[in-house]
Specification:
The protein contains nine helices and no strands. With 156 residues, it is mainly α. The two termini are 22 Å apart.
Amino acid sequence: MAQSEDQPNWSLEEHFETFCQGQIMFGPFWDHITGYWKESLERPRKVLFLKYEDLKEDIGGQLKKVAEFVGLPFTKEEEEGGVIEEIANLCSLKTLKDLEVNKSGKVGDTTAEKRSFFRKGEVGDWVNHLTPSMVDRLNSIMQEKMRPFGLEFKMC
């Protein structure tokens, strides 16, 4: 978490508890996710809801979906010419991590190093950073807050 120089250092447990209680900047995470999900169902031409898991599973299909959503679908020539693969490569986590601007420096007046925004980019890797009880609690909260709206994520 990006932290200003004058803020105290919090433990992972303290950050986790604050997150679970929805006491984070801009309000509860769950409200944001379900709000955009509902809008995407009610106004599919105005709001496109993508899940990281889906991007990792089928980047080409998801890029086509984005292109169609913004009204610029790929032509057959672009698809056959490898344009989708080029875009996927340019936007890959590896490419972004390797950009000089993202390798060093801090974000504004925070203690957050720019490179800290890039992890493995693997679906479900978050469970390797939390205790088993934290994983269980987060899975439970996600089911409670999102399932009533028909929104599900792959649980660990």
